[in-house]
């Protein structure tokens, strides 16, 4: 299918996958993809490769390994510019395969990553939203390993609309989804000890370190509560995500 697309079409598909497609082109490209199962599969492959690239970028890999990966990425970018229609998917696949190995080497066998948690947070809810826990209206009646999800309604107008439970490489994980004005957020808490911190932009708020990065085309903030990894991602600005994440840190609101 990639070989049947023009350079412009393939470039737009790649841009749609990594979230850089201009807004004025998005509706037309998405409509074309929706009408073609082949394009849908190709887009999904591109998205998986982008997620793999971002996952390794967020991991604390050895400098030597990062150098190898960056060289492959530069080679991929050059190849895509020269022979985009035929080589885009194949080259991205090769880079993604190398990156998968890198993630395994840096995370250890079966070790979940922040990117795994982000993928869960980007999925659709499959259960009802938990009700408010009452009291001051700061917590929801849903916990994982003793850590409660925040009720963001009174504080910031984000209303819980659904939830999801899953396993990430053997660990329990839960998500609560919030909406506000047509926007959506996913708030993930992963059971067990904190996951490896990504190499990303850090902000310290009340002695807690928050890291901001893009995962799966969405802006995300990750931090730890009670030693557990939390990820908040979705349609919000970096400042808004940090405000929501740090609000839930206050002991009386946990």
Task: Explain briefly what this protein structure is.
The protein is an alpha+beta fold and 254 residues long. The chain has two domains: 2-107, no CATH class; 114-253, MucB/RseB, C-terminal domain (Phosphorylase Kinase, domain 1, 2-Layer Sandwich). The protein has seven helices and nine strands; from the N terminus they run H-H-H-H-H-E-E-H-E-E-E-E-E-E-E-H.
* Poorly predicted residue ranges: 83-110
For CATH, the homologous superfamily of the largest domain is named as: MucB/RseB, C-terminal domain
Strand order of the largest sheet: 3-4-5-9-8-7-6
Largest sheet: 7 strands, antiparallel
Structural class: alpha+beta
> What would CATH call the architecture of the largest domain?
2-Layer Sandwich
Gap between N and C termini: 50 Å
By CATH, the topology of the largest domain is Phosphorylase Kinase, domain 1
For the record, the count of structural domains works out to 2
The amount of helix comes to 40-55%
List SSEs in N-to-C order.
HHHHHEEHEEEEEEEH
Mean pLDDT: 75
**How much of the polypeptide forms β-strand, as a percent range?**
25-35%
Q: How many individual helices?
A: 7
Overall spatial form:
globular
Number of strand elements: 9
- Radius of gyration, in Å, reads 19 Å
The CATH class of the largest domain is: Alpha Beta
Give the helices and strands, then pairings.
Blueprint: H1 7-18, H2 23-34, H3 37-58, H4 63-107, H5 114-121, E1 139-144, E2 147-150, H6 153-156, E3 159-168, E4 171-180, E5 183-190, E6 201-205, E7 208-215, E8 218-225, E9 228-234, H7 238-247
Antiparallel strand pairs: 1-2, 3-4, 4-5, 5-9, 6-7, 7-8, 8-9
Helix pairs in contact: 1-3, 1-4, 3-4
